[in-house]
Amino acid sequence: MSLFATILCGGAGSRLWPVSRELHPKPFIRLADGESLLQKAFLRAARLPGAKEVLAVTNREFVFQTQDEFRAVNEAGLPTAYVLEPFARNTAAAVAAAALDVRDRHGLQSVMLVLPADHLVRDAAAFSEAVARASALAAQGNLVTFGIKPEGPETGYGYIEAEGFQVKRFVEKPPLEVAQQFVDSGRHFWNAGMFCFTAQSILGELAAHAPDVLSAVEACLLHSQRTRGEGLAQVALESASFEGVPSISVDHAVMERSSRVAVVPCDIGWSDIGSWSAVSELTQPDGSGNRIEGDAVLHDVSDCYIRSERLVGAVGVDGLMIIDTADALLVASKERSQDVRQVFAELKSADHDAHKLHQTVHRPWGTYTVLEEGPGYKIKRIEVKPGASLSLQMHHHRSEHWVVVAGEAMVVNGEREFAVQANESTYIPAGNRHRLSNLGKDRLAIIEVQSGTYLGEDDIVRYSDLYRRSASQL
């Protein structure tokens, strides 16, 4: 049976700050083995028997990074597709857009497997078996959800009550006493947020139970831009009409209302990686119960999780989480891991850069890292992928000095175009049109020193751009 996997790449991951940021969300977090959660979701889908395509529904700001993530692990060359949202409208809209796209390109009977981008499944064989059972039920017209056999009374998950394969009801996150009753009953399962159905079945149930969502997404698609190429299909949803789509989860819009919902109970080593406590469980503890990712020197320390990009020393502490990044440090009690979202919310309310960006920021052409900044100046390290170019652009309020430290740069500066080798430099005055390109096969790295009265990333006028970005799409 042909299978079309849809990966939903939403969610800010506020409980995983400071590694997760608004412009570097949870799916891009890398685990100890070097793979991101998004890459693991792609491989999980791509390795299933009958997998024909992986379709990602993601914010258009993340499409190039998502493509890079897929490309790095897609050794088999499985076709990929993308539905690009201008902003989030919850999972019902995402599923509707994906189903309409799959219907148009592959037909109404196509079996879709919908997976969150930020969950983890440890038992690939059990997952494959569960998907095979779900696909068979989906082919009979069912909307299939995956029920995880509970390991204990978890109050942070939704539950599914089932009778055989038939879903009787969904229950939102229950209090502890009720959760324990659910575990004891043997009829309740954790709701994994994964689904399987044909395009025809989900579109029919959307029409029956959430017609406002379906009609709004259909109207949006009439105004949206489609791109087709070799092994690639892309739909960029149009902003003005997408704003009118109701924001509701597919669970509330369809699954809780439909009479055609089935469940596949399974034990697949599932986790939603919803907090640093869940992430810490992926690392083996030492003799004192400490779980360490990175370089740490400990004295009289027990039951701590430390994840760091530099050396951390700890003395005489117990039950702490220490998450250290280049520009932010989190210290929290392990028992309060869910409350990390409060720090994220306060940073966002104050419009602090640390809720939005890392020091290293991903762009379609490569990355930049802010090394230092102060009144009237900012210093960056810029790396440009082979064959990539920044936009032809101009800044009103700042000038830039570029020093090439690795590779060879092709530079447009005003009316001139010329090469700059390693250990050479050039100066870009404010008001000059300029472009930086890497035409070679090796990485290009430069140090950029900005000087001026305003150094914000929005001081940019684009004249041409390979990635079709506006000034608002940094």
What would your notes on this structure say?
Helix 3 (90-106) crosses helix 6 (199-209) and helix 6 (199-209) crosses helix 7 (211-222). The radius of gyration is 24 Å and the shape is globular. The protein has 474 residues and is of the alpha/beta class. The mean pLDDT is 93. The protein folds into 3 domains: 3-271, Spore Coat Polysaccharide Biosynthesis Protein SpsA, Chain A (Alpha-Beta Complex), CATH 3.90.550; 278-346, no CATH class; 360-464, Jelly Rolls, CATH 2.60.120.10. It starts with a strand and ends in a 10-residue tail after the last strand. The strands form 7 sheets. Strands 1, 2, 3, 4, 6, 7, 8, 9, 10, 11 and 12 form an 11-stranded mixed beta sheet that branches. The chain has a 6-stranded antiparallel beta sheet with strand order 20-21-22-29-24-27, with no helix packed on it.
Which descriptors apply to this entry?
30 strands; Spore Coat Polysaccharide Biosynthesis Protein SpsA, Chain A; 11 helices; Jelly Rolls; 3 domains
Helical content band: 10-25%
Strand content bin: 25-35%
Largest sheet report:
11 strands, mixed
The N- and C-terminal alpha carbons lie at a distance of 41 Å
How would you concisely characterize the structure shown here?
With 474 residues, the chain is of the alpha/beta class. The chain is built from eleven helices and 30 strands. It is globular, with a radius of gyration of 24 Å.
